[in-house]
Write a structure and sequence with these properties.
The protein is mainly alpha-helical. Helix content is 60%, strand content 6%. It is built from 4 helices and 2 strands, in the order H-E-E-H-H-H.
């Protein structure tokens, strides 16, 4: 390993992956059941619990992406050092 990712960052990356998977699962459930449900007792229309969970996870993923500099706004705050030498493989694949 190159030592680029710290243990703290690994945990955050794993959290993002877990949130992504949960979000995917909840959205699949919402697609199957519908975003809204009607109470059999009262007739009140409420949001499906999986819909709220998916929305909360989407917000969590956006925050994590922002922390990693992976949103347009967060990229503007990154301080990136200029790369001094060109990797031959990089030049081969990316010009």
């Amino acid at each position: 390993m190159l030592g680029v990712i710290s243990l703290a960052e690994r945990a955050a990356i794993l959290r993002y992956c877990h949130a992504y998977q949960q979000h995917h699962d909840f959205e699949r459930q919402v697609k199957k059941d519908g975003r809204w449900q009607v109470s059999a007792k009262t007739g009140v229309i409420t949001e499906h619990p999986a819909s709220k969970a998916a929305r909360d996870l989407a917000n969590q993923m956006i925050k994590l992406l922002s922390a990693f500099g992976m949103t347009p706004t967060s990229r503007t705050r990154l301080a990136v050092k200029e790369k001094l030498e060109v990797d031959p493989d990089e030049k081969l694949f990316f010009g």
